[in-house]
Each structure stands twice: as C-alpha cells, then as structure tokens.
Design goal:
alpha+beta
C-alpha cells in the first residue's frame, strides 16, 4: 500500500510541475513573440523536445540564417537539448487561407530562436521579424 501511495504522490507532483512549468514557459514565450510584434493565443498548441544539431546540417544552416535575420543565432546552442513551443498567430497581416504558427525554440527555459510558418504543402516559413510577413 505504501508503494502505491508513493507512486501516486510522484505522479501528482510530476504533473503539477509540468503544468506549472508549461504555464511559465507560455508567459515567457508570448512576451518574446510580442517583442517581435506577434500576438498569439496564450497557450502552446504543441510542444516537442528538440536537439540543436552539432554540426549543423544543410537544413539547420538555412534555418539559422532566419535566426540571424531576427537578431538571434543558434550556433552557441549546438548540441544542446531544449523544447519547441508552437502557438497560433492571431495578427498575421494577411489572410493566407490557413492558420499561421509561431514556433519558439527554448534552451534551459529561455527563448533562443523561432520562426513564423504554415504547415501546408504550399506554405511558408520566415523569421520572427514582423516585417517579413508584409513582403
């Protein structure tokens, strides 16, 4: 019986920590996006663990160019584990016929990169700069 109680306490504590940490991350990420001019729904619609590759492959070389354009750089985070949080953008300046998403990459709970994109085959991806949306 003590084993069962201990397992239940561990599960409840873990769930409480995850919910609290996620809420804290959302506040930080929403503020980060707001600094770039984006308004998003307050909670991430998706989260995923990530690893910034070391060395960068061709995809990450291109992706880091988006980061540098927005004043960010993923090079110091090569080989590090983190999280990707995805939000729905509410103020994209044009109707693109599908939801626009904002991805934020966090290392040690701190936003270090991200992008604005859609998921369709004919979709797009650009830097976090609001001005890239109005081109």
């Amino acid at each position: 019986m003590m084993y069962f109680i201990a397992v239940v306490i561990i599960i409840i504590t873990t769930l409480a920590f995850v919910l609290f940490a996620s809420g804290e991350a959302d506040v930080s990420n929403v503020s980060f996006l707001k600094d770039y001019g984006w308004e998003v729904k307050g909670r991430a619609i998706e989260t995923a663990e990530i690893i910034i590759p070391d060395p960068f492959d061709r995809v990450y070389e291109s992706y880091n160019k988006l980061q540098i354009r927005a004043g960010l750089d993923l090079i110091p985070y090569k080989g590090m584990h983190g999280m990707r949080y995805t939000y729905i953008v509410e103020n994209y300046p044009s109707d693109v016929g599908e939801p626009v998403r904002a991805n934020i990459l966090c290392i040690d709970g701190k936003p270090v990169g991200g992008d604005i994109m859609t998921v369709s085959f004919h979709g797009f991806m650009h830097s976090l700069l609001f001005e890239d949306a109005v081109k």
